[in-house]
Specification:
The chain is of the alpha/beta class. 44% of the residues lie in helices and 17% in strands. About 2% of the residues have low confidence. Pfam families: cobW.
Length: 231
């Protein structure tokens, strides 16, 4: 059975992107950097989470951010206020960052800084529950955010995102009393797809779950630091 042209094109695109992702990861590994790819739909709270994370960890870890948005540097400017290097990438009409775009961010990191001095790079992907999960960028772990306001069914309707995630943050939990949504049902739906994912309910407003998230980040960075760098 022959593949359709569209199917063959998609396979070729993913194959080419994977080669670029492997290239990016080899640079992260050589520099001793852990890379985390943050993905979610628009408005789930990626930027606010990063603001809190940078405020909490910037004294103990050297952190940079590659910030993806279709247009503007509004989110990048918010993160720059925390005193870390932030490299903005505008994707135009593209609904996700790909490996080539992130390679551009790495080139700017190498030009402006000494990459080997960094412990952690966050990639804040474009708001989208579909494409970012399919296009690796060289990350060592994928972090998905799902806000409580999005409902219980999103993991089942957008399975790739939740199947691929290493950590899932269920955000805006402070709104639970006002919504007909069950955190337990969300977790159960996610577990159908991914039994190993770390799940952390979290509220940026109250601080619930933030310590658990920071501990998870620290643990990933520590584990990566014990891996022998690639020459």
């Amino acid at each position: 059975m022959h593949q359709t042209f569209d199917a063959a094109l998609e396979i070729n695109m993913l194959h080419a992107n994977q080669a670029g992702a492997d290239y990016n990861r080899s640079h992260f590994d050589r520099w001793g950097i852990t890379c985390l790819n943050l993905m979610s739909s628009p408005g789930a709270g990626k930027t606010q989470l990063l603001e809190q994370t940078l405020a909490a960890l910037r004294e103990e870890l050297n952190i940079a951010v590659i910030e993806g948005d279709m247009t503007t540097e509004l989110d990048a400017d918010r993160l720059r206020q925390h005193g870390v290097p932030v490299f903005a990438i505008n994707t135009g009409r593209a609904c996700h960052l790909d490996a080539k775009m992130v390679a551009g961010g790495l080139h700017r990191l190498e030009q402006d800084c000494n990459p080997s001095e960094f412990d952690l790079v966050f990639v804040e992907n474009v708001g989208n529950l579909v494409c970012p999960a399919e296009f690796e960028v060289g990350e060592h772990a994928k972090v998905a955010l799902l806000s409580l306001t999005e409902g219980e069914d999103k993991p089942l309707k957008y399975p790739i995102m939740f199947r691929e995630a290493d950590c899932l943050l269920i955000t805006k939990t402070d709104l639970a009393p006002y919504l007909d949504v069950s955190i337990e049902n969300i977790i159960a739906n996610v577990r159908q797809l991914n039994s190993q994912v770390k799940i952390i309910p979290l509220s940026a407003k109250t601080g619930e779950g933030l310590a658990d998230w920071l501990d998870w980040v620290r643990a990933v960075v520590k584990a990566r630091s014990q891996v022998t760098p690639v020459p």
